[in-house]
Structures are given as C-alpha cells and as structure tokens.
Specification:
The complex is a heterodimer of chains A (77) and B (323). By secondary structure, chain A is α+β, with helices and mostly antiparallel strands. Chain A has one helix at 2-25; strands at residues 38-45, 56-62, 73-74. Chain A has a two-stranded antiparallel sheet. The radius of gyration of chain A is 32 Å and the shape is rod-shaped. Chain B has a single domain, classed as T-fold, CATH 3.10.520. Chain B has helices at 30-47, 56-62, 72-87, 97-102, 117-123, 161-175, 195-199, 269-291, and strands at residues 2-10, 13-19, 67-69, 142-144, 149-151, 182-186, 189-193, 202-207, 214-220, 223-229, 234-236, 242-244, 247-248, 253-254, 259-266, 296-300, 305-308, 321-322. Classes of the chains: A alpha+beta (77), B alpha+beta (323). Strand 3 of chain A pairs parallel with strand 8 of chain B.
C-alpha cells in the first residue's frame, strides 16, 4: 500500500515537472488582425455655431491603407 | 492610421481638410486644429474680400493715398499677387479690378447659377492667346514689410482673388506642419504635406469642367495642385454677350483661348494656381510649354482632355490624348 502511494506521488511529480516544458515548446495559434476601412461621422452642424455661420461636416476615417473615403478633387471654383 | 475629414464652406467654395495623426505631442488634436483653421480661413476670406466694404482690401482700394498702412495678412496677399504676376510675366495681373467690374464682375457671384458655357463658347470671338498689359501697372505696386505699407499709384485697385485660394491653402498647410499627413483643399486649390504623404501620396481627382465628372487622378506627395476653369464664373452681360472672370490683361476683356479648363501641379498651391491660370490664358500651345516641366491637364473647348508632361503616364483614361 505504502509502495503504491509512493509510486503514485513519484509519477505525479514527474508529470508536474514535464507539463510546463511541453506547453513552452508548443507554438501559439496565429492571431490575425485585419484593419477594416471605417468612416465615422462625428458631428454635422447645420447652420453652424459661432460667427462663421456655416455648416461643418466632420468625420474620422480609420484604415490600414492611405486611401480616404472620397479622394480630394481639384476643380474650378 | 486615423485621418480627420473636415468640410465647411468659405471663400464662396467648399473647403476640406484631411488631417492625419499628430506628429508632435505638442500639437492639438486634429479636430481642434481643424476648428482653428476654419476660423483662420473665414477671417482670411472676410479680410481679403473685394466685395465686403469692411475688408482690409476694400479699405486699401478706397484709399486716395499712394502709400497705405496695411496689416500683415493684406501685405502677404498683395505680395502673392505680385509674385504671380512676376512668375507669369504679367499674365496673372492683380490690377485688373476696373476691367473686371466693366465686364460685370462687380459683385460676388457666390451662389449664382453660372450661364451655359457651351452657349458662351458658341458666341465667343475667334480664339487667341492672352498677352500681358504693356503698361504693367502691377510693377508699380510695392509692399514694404518694414514700414508696414502698400504703395501703388492712386486709382490702381488690387484684386487678391486670383491667387487667394492657393495662398490660403499654403498658409493652412504651414500651420498643419505638426501632423503626419494633410490635405488642404480651398475650393479645388489644394496643398498637400506631411511626411506620411511623401511615403504614401494622396490621389487627387481632377474634375472635368463640362461634365463635372472625374477625368482621372494624380498622385501628389507634397506641394500643390490647382484647377482653373471657365465653367463656374461665367455670366451673360446686359448686351446679351457672355463674360467670365479670366481677363486678357492686354485688352481687359475675357479671354477665349481655346481652353476651358487647366490643372497644374506646383511646388505650392500658389504656384499651381498661377500655372493653371497661365495655361488657361495662353491656350493650347502656351499651356503645353507652361505645364511641360511639372505636368498638368488641359481641357479644350470641345471637352477633349489632354495630359501634359509627366502627368500623361499617371492618368488612366481611354480617350485621353497625351502630349
């Protein structure tokens, strides 16, 4: 009986010693982050506030690329 | 990468700011900077308006004195006009106010529906290139920053509108130097800057003056790009004829050069604006010379689009003619 318990504890100790080593050697699964283009309109002020009295459209674009929501356009004015 | 897209109306046009992330920790957040620049553009526009009696420019033009005390903003704007005149050999002349008024441009046309450009072209005189005014009144205008004055012969009125939007775009661009990348679009006169833009240039669309659709796009990493056209400020005079805002300095009359639109790339928005006006005033042959170095696009009276210089390889458009 005493021999069985001793043998069990020895096996348990060996397993506990080996477990962290096994975990350490295993490669982690790859984590892929994809940036998705997003445009968020923060605020639209119709009529505007302050002395300028114009409307303002503000939005924030987040992207993995440098492409903006709509390209700036050169035009006659 | 995060970029603020901020739009408002000023200078009789749509103004748009694209502002990237802060390059310097001391710079305010992009939205705060955009609000600040909106106020700047509004003040710039109000103080330099030819149509506001309370503007700095109107005060200068009203003054009977030869030498007039002027604030730094007005001095900078007049200097820009003189720079454009020098750069263009007198073609982009800031002293044509009276001729503009005689042509009917004596009040703001903001919000006024333009006349039909096709009808105006059908009635226009034979096409010819513009020439500088032999009198070159602009050479007698002087800005003295030390004394804080502008000196010109009494009676010579100055219009800073021809170069105003380009100058404004450049001024805002300088003020946005603390951001990774930015575009300042003042009614189509555009300044581009920031280290990020040099690494990944912005694609700038070019609008066709007749169809208002995109001709194609040009990649711009720094400096300026501008477009001039006859389609927005064209009107019918009381005598039934048509006029527009780009005058031949040698005659004081609207120019009909064979081109209805021109786009130019420049080292700054001010230079681009000057080059595009030169191209439009000189017509097809002159435009090819003016735009050859930095590249550009012209639109003929027929609506045909012609890419010039290095731009020809950048724009993918089936019916485009390259030279």
């Amino acid at each position: 009986m005493l021999f069985s318990i001793t043998a069990f504890l020895v096996v348990l100790a060996v397993l506990m010693h080996q477990l962290p080593a096994a975990n350490h050697g295993r490669s982690h699964p790859a984590l892929l982050l994809r940036k998705v283009y997003r445009t968020t309109i923060i605020e639209t002020i119709a009529g505007g506030s302050g002395p300028l009295g114009t409307s303002v459209l503000r939005s924030v674009s987040s992207s993995g690329s440098s492409v903006t929501a709509t390209a700036p356009t050169t035009r006659s004015s | 990468m995060t970029e603020l897209d901020y739009r408002f109306q000023a200078m009789g046009s749509d103004v748009r700011l694209l502002i990237g992330e802060r390059l310097l920790a001391s710079a305010p957040p992009p939205l705060e900077a955009a609000d600040r620049e909106r106020a700047f553009v509004g003040e710039f526009s109000d103080r330099l308006s030819r149509f506001r009696p309370d503007s700095d420019l109107s005060a200068l033009n009203r003054s009977p004195r030869a030498s007039v005390l002027a604030a730094p903003l007005l001095r900078a704007a007049v200097r820009a006009g003189l720079w454009a005149a020098q750069r263009s050999g007198g073609l982009v002349d800031p002293t044509l106010v009276r001729a503009l008024e005689r042509s009917g441009y004596d009040h703001s046309l903001d919000g006024v529906e333009p006349a039909s450009l096709q009808e105006a072209l059908a009635q226009a005189p034979p096409r010819r290139a513009a020439q500088p005014d032999p009198a070159a009144r602009w050479r007698r205008v002087a800005v003295d920053d030390h004394a804080g004055t502008i000196t010109r012969p009494p009676g010579v009125m100055i219009d800073t509108g021809g170069t105003g939007k380009g100058l404004c775009a450049d001024a805002v661009a300088i003020r946005l130097a603390g951001y990774t990348r930015f575009v300042v679009d003042c009614g189509g006169d555009i300044a581009v800057g920031g280290v990020g833009a040099q690494l990944k240039p912005y694609e700038i669309d070019i609008e066709h003056p007749l169809t208002r659709r995109s001709i194609g796009s040009i990649k711009v990493a720094r400096g300026g790009i501008a477009t001039s056209g006859l389609n927005v400020r064209v009107w019918r005079r009381e005598d039934g004829g048509y006029a527009h805002h780009l005058l031949d300095p040698s005659t004081g009359s609207p120019v009909w050069s064979g081109l209805i639109g021109a786009t130019a790339i420049g080292g700054s928005a001010l230079e681009a604006e000057t080059l595009t006006k030169m191209a439009l005033l000189l017509g097809p042959a002159g435009a090819r010379r003016v735009l050859a170095k930095r590249g550009g696009v012209v639109v003929h009276d027929t609506g045909e689009v012609e890419a010039i210089g290095c731009v020809a390889g950048q724009i993918a458009e089936p019916e485009l003619r390259a030279s």
